[in-house]
Design brief:
The protein is of the alpha+beta class. The protein has a single domain, classed as 3-Layer(aba) Sandwich (Glutaredoxin), CATH 3.40.30.10. The chain has five helices and four strands. The strands form two sheets. The protein has a two-stranded parallel ribbon with strand order 1-2. Strands 3-4 form a two-stranded antiparallel sheet. A hairpin with a 5-residue loop joins β3 and β4. The chain is globular and about 45 Å long. 11% of the residues are buried.
Length: 109
């Protein structure tokens, strides 16, 4: 989330919204957002097993949290790119998302 926050202006300049969501409680998600200095919207209270069933994400063995999952939506709100991780590597980065965005924008010209 901090990576996307650091590049938030680049997304905003292109008219693209960035949001985050968490399985944490409202209080915990708010504390995480504060610690990371996030100004982007952060949703909370996702049920890991339910989210995983609907979107194919991975979640912890004890069912308490989701592993990193990233989506890029097209202008119609449909999933264009999805990246699923079950550990500390293989996550969608802000740079990756910006490169994909630039490619998509160039393809539409």
């Amino acid at each position: 989330m901090a990576d996307f926050q650091a590049h938030l202006g680049e997304f905003t300049d292109r008219g693209v919204s960035v949001i985050a969501a968490s399985s944490e409680s409202e209080e915990e998600a708010g504390e995480t957002a504060k610690q990371l200095g996030l100004s982007l919207p952060v949703g909370y209270g996702l049920e890991p097993a339910d989210f995983a069933l609907q979107f194919g994400a991975f979640y912890s063995d004890d069912g308490t949290y989701l592993h990193a999952t990233g989506f890029l939506l097209d202008p119609d709100g449909l999933v264009d790119i999805s990246v699923y991780s079950c550990g500390a590597i293989g996550r969608l980065t802000a740079s990756d998302a910006l490169q994909i965005l630039e490619y998509r924008l160039a393809s539409n010209d």
